[in-house]
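INTERNAL AUDIT FORM
Audit reference: QA-55
Scope: verify that the stored structure record matches its stored sequence.
Auditor: D.O.
Record contents follow.
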Amino acid sequence: MAVFKPENVEDLYDIGDVLGSGHFGQVRQVRERATGTTWAAKFLKIRKNAYSRLGLDRDSVEREVEILQAVQHSNIVTLKDVFESRSEVVLILELISGGELFDFIAEKESLLESEAIEFMKQILEGLGFMHSRNIAHFDLKPENIMLLDKALPHPNIKLIDFGLAHRFVPGEEYRSTSGTPQYIAPEVINNQPLNTAADMWSIGVITYILLSGLSPFQGDTDEETLKNVDAMMYRFDAQHFSMTSSMAKDFIQKLLVKNPCERMTAEESLLHPWIKPITSKQVANRNRSSINIKNFKKFNARRKWKMSYNMVWMCNRLVQLKPFKVKSEPDPLERQCESDVEDTESKPASLIRRRLSSSS
């Protein structure tokens, strides 16, 4: 059960500058008076009743809080405190100032596979911890993989944004058609029962992009992308994977498997020879291979432009529709336009979530 404190947040924290803002509230930098530690405080407006159009549903906030309180791990954003008043909930979160991992990599002139693997290990360790507690993220993508502080020699990875995360209970059958098209698993598209294996598919897609600068299933439209995912339409193009090791390709192939039961788990992935080489030859192969940094830079630039474009379009569309729209359920566009910032460098546009309607 989520733990909410009844105290006033201002009694324990000094409220500082605004880091980000959105339809449902804002994120501010705060300083804990007792320790002097700096945190990020997410101030969320809560709907007063089921018919209100202002604010978030308290149950959805409580679910996210419960999950964050259950996944205290060095590679997952830390939730320290939660305060509640009549009109808002305040989440005290770790201040993540290093920006997105993909942006950090795009600033480099080169990157060996062995260096990229150090980041993948951290992602898998955080994910494995979640999965061991029967929790799936369901929204793994570059925008939700951050660096605590990019100035450190070995930056610490942080997984963020648990708005779509789900905690499984024994005997439950869970389905969802939410996610971002190029990262979601086939079982999501087909509205089949889900488990933590859906996250591992996303890891396969992210690894493919990291190494080549290409998105394996990306089509000209979302519909085409979804068809490519369902049809398993991907390949290792020689031009873009010329510097990629065979072990890296094998790692991806063991994740981009249509049957969820046959995919590697997070635990198995950490033991794969690409991540944990067994022989000196395997180590040498990793050190001779590198990511396609030139193409990766192009991919990341397109990704950032597309997110900015989509955010402007979505929010403008929301403003146009609002005077004419009556609803009892939260509007997905409102969630997409909402800032979910836990850092000082990422912008609200980097936290878009697309909701897919079921095809069944």
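Auditor finding: record pair retrieved intact. The first helix runs from residue 58 to 70.
Action required: none
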